[in-house]
Amino acid sequence: MNHTEKLTEYINTLREAGIDYSQGLPEELFLYVSSVTPIPNVDLLITNEKKQLLLSWRDDPYFGKGWHIPGGCIRFGETMYERIQKTALEEIGAEVIVNGGPIAVKDVICKGRTGLKNPNERGHQLAILYDCNVQGNYKICNGDKKENDPGYLKWFDRIPEDILSVHEVYKEILNHWERTREENEKLE
Question: Which listed site, 30, 56, 103, 125, has its alpha carbon 20 to 30 Å from 168?
Answer without folding.
Answer: 30
